[in-house]
Design goal:
The protein has 289 residues and is α/β, with parallel strands linked by helices. It has eight helices and ten strands. An eight-stranded parallel β-sheet has the order 4-1-5-10-9-6-7-8, with helices on both faces. A two-stranded antiparallel ribbon has the order 2-3. β2 and β3 form a beta hairpin. GO terms for molecular function: agmatinase activity; metal ion binding.
């Protein structure tokens, strides 16, 4: 059984206690050491799990119930506070074990840098991998103020590893001019501002391919998800994000891993953000697994 070094106590709704029979494994990555504005996303995984208690088991969108899905919630990884490099190594080691056990990794962040070691490990197993990245920010910086381990760099690292043509970005509405130029020069499938419609147009080309999906909650407008570290005006609605998730689920792509990151509950006393995030996770579990 691939348990992390610590256990969060609370689990996502209807998770199983049977690791061996589970097709997917949820794990938390409570790291927020490299954020450029507001920390607090290390508390996201726990609050998402707690918010899931308020969900209905049934998804009317997909006509499926999470009661019928066998998946395991392993809790949060024990990460050494402030040590980004060692934390990324711990995440990579854990995900490698999941993949060796033929599990689908389902990550809860945490800042977006935590997606990088996961993508790297999934790519080792699936060398024809494509990444669908849904976010307000391009995350294509080479470094942030001289630091290459930053929440603004994970997709740049993925593009350098896999080739830009295997990166599909949606909803981007913030970034440096250099990031926009980099996306164009490297052949990244770059779709700023909107998500659902451009995604639907790209999905046929990904049919049958292994795909990793990473969603930053700040792709949503701050009015829909204020609890995040780097809010950005002009975002999409939760309805459009659900539409995008359902489009992926119905497209025929082979989702081999996914995550949702950057929920920072301290900035949202209404708890709207973890509530939205938990519903997105439910729909991804039912649609992708």
């Amino acid at each position: 059984m691939r348990l992390p070094q610590t256990y969060s106590g609370n689990v996502f709704i209807y998770s199983s206690d049977d690791y061996a029979s589970s097709k997917a494994v949820i794990y938390g990555m409570p790291m927020d050491y490299t954020v450029s504005f507001r920390p607090g996303s290390r508390f996201g995984p726990g609050r998402i799990r707690e918010a899931s208690v308020g969900l209905e088991e049934y998804s009317p969108y997909l006509d499926k119930s999470i009661e019928d899905l066998v998946y395991f919630d392993a809790g949060d990884l024990l990460l050494p506070f402030g040590n980004a490099a060692k934390s990324l190594d711990i995440i990579a080691d854990y995900v490698r074990g999941l993949l060796n056990d033929d599990k689908i990794p389902v990550g809860l962040g945490g800042e977006h840098l935590v997606s990088w070691p996961v993508i790297r490990e999934v790519y080792k197993k699936y060398p024809d991998l494509a990444v669908i990245h849904i976010d307000a920010h391009a995350d294509l910086r080479e470094h942030y103020e001289g630091e290459p381990l930053s929440h603004s760099t994970p997709i740049r690292k993925a593009a350098e590893l896999m080739g830009g043509v295997n990166i599909y970005q949606f909803g981007i509405r913030s970034g440096s001019k250099e990031e926009w130029t980099y996306a164009k020069e490297k052949g990244i499938h770059f779709h700023p501002f909107d998500v659902a419609e451009p995604l639907k147009k790209e999905l046929p080309s990904l049919a049958g391919r292994p795909v990793y999906v990473t969603i930053d909650i700040d792709v949503l407008d701050p009015s829909a998800a204020p609890g995040t570290g780097t809010t950005e005006a002009g975002g999409i609605t939760s309805k459009e994000l659900l539409e995008a998730v359902h489009a992926i689920a119905r497209s025929g792509v082979n989702v081999v891993g996914f995550d949702l990151v950057e929920v920072a509950p301290i900035y949202d006393p209404t708890e709207m953000t973890p509530i939205v995030a938990s519903k997105i996770i439910r729909e991804m579990l039912l649609g992708f697994v």
